[in-house]
């Protein structure tokens, strides 16, 4: 098992000018992995022409609220509690060791969110499919964490791109501009992480690949 120490992680940091560091930090926070599911589901709720066409505004807001609670609030709360109890060294999860328990906790919350939407037949199948893909990618990252500290940012934007490609293949919406935008975002996010984090190119590519493939698997299985 390759669980690197904080000192080893810090030694891989690269000097970056302030002109590059500031936008890289901004992109890393705006497109933080914890927020990506909200962006994706907001897209299918409000921008896709058919998936939520028959839903009231209140039903759409309730959908986003469930996502915010199960995929943002509870994962963040669990990480804060883990830090307060001394189970992790930093809420930023800079080491492989720090990521083990949060991966497990998040996978539980994601699977619960999947069950919530899966059991309610009024929701389009694409919604639980995406969340199941997020659950799969979280568990894939946990397994990969044994060997390397893959980029969670790359994992999340890879999943975002994979899901948009799934929609494109379904031919329910012209996805040229959404896919193009996500490819641009993925490039900016991965470049930002390469500049300001200790991730290697291999860790970024691994994250992108796992995110993509997990969404494809979920689309086939669900």
Task: Describe how the helices and strands are arranged.
Layout: H1 6-11, H2 18-30, H3 36-46, H4 57-84, H5 96-118, H6 126-144, H7 152-170, H8 176-196, H9 201-221
Describe this structure in words.
With 222 residues, this protein is mainly α. It has one domain. Helix content is 73%, strand content 0%. The protein contains 9 helices and no strands. It has helices at residues 6-11, 18-30, 36-46, 57-84, 96-118, 126-144, 152-170, 176-196, 201-221. The longest helix is centred in the first third of the chain and has 28 residues, at 57-84. The two termini are 33 Å apart. 37% of the residues are buried.
Describe, in short, the structure shown:
The protein is mainly alpha-helical and 222 residues long. The chain has nine helices and no strands. The protein has helices at 6-11, 18-30, 36-46, 57-84, 96-118, 126-144, 152-170, 176-196, 201-221.
What key phrases describe this protein's structure?
globular; mainly alpha; 222 residues; 9 helices; 0% strand; single chain
Q: Tell me about the biggest sheet?
A: none
Instruction: List the quaternary state of the chains.
Output: single chain
Distinct helical segment count: 9
Mean pLDDT across all amino acids: 92
Number of strands: 0
Task: List unreliable stretches of 5+ residues.
Answer: 6-11
| Proportion of residues in helical segments | over 70%
Q: How large a portion of the residues is in β-strands, by DSSP E?
A: under 5%
């Amino acid at each position: 098992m390759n669980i690197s120490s904080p000192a080893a992680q810090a030694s891989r940091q690269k000097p970056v000018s302030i002109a590059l560091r500031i936008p890289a930090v901004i992109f890393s926070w705006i497109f933080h992995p914890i927020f990506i599911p909200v962006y994706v589901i907001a897209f299918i709720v409000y921008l896709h022409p058919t998936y939520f066409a028959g839903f009231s505004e209140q039903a759409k807001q309730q959908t986003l609220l469930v996502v915010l609670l199960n995929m943002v609030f509870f994962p963040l709360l669990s990480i804060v509690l883990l830090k307060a109890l001394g189970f992790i060294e930093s809420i930023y999860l800079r080491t492989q060791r720090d990521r083990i328990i949060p991966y497990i906790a998040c996978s539980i919350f994601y699977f619960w969110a999947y069950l919530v939407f899966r059991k309610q037949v009024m929701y389009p199948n694409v919604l639980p499919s995406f969340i199941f893909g997020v659950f799969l990618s979280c568990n894939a990252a946990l397994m990969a964490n044994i060997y390397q500290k893959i980029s969670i940012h790359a994992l999340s934007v890879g999943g975002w791109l994979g899901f948009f490609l799934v929609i494109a293949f379904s031919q329910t919406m012209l996805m040229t501009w959404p896919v193009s935008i996500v490819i641009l975002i993925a490039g900016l996010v991965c470049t930002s992480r390469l500049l300001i984090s200790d991730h290697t190119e291999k860790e970024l590519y691994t994250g992108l690949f796992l995110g993509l493939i997990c969404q494809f698997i979920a689309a086939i299985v669900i």
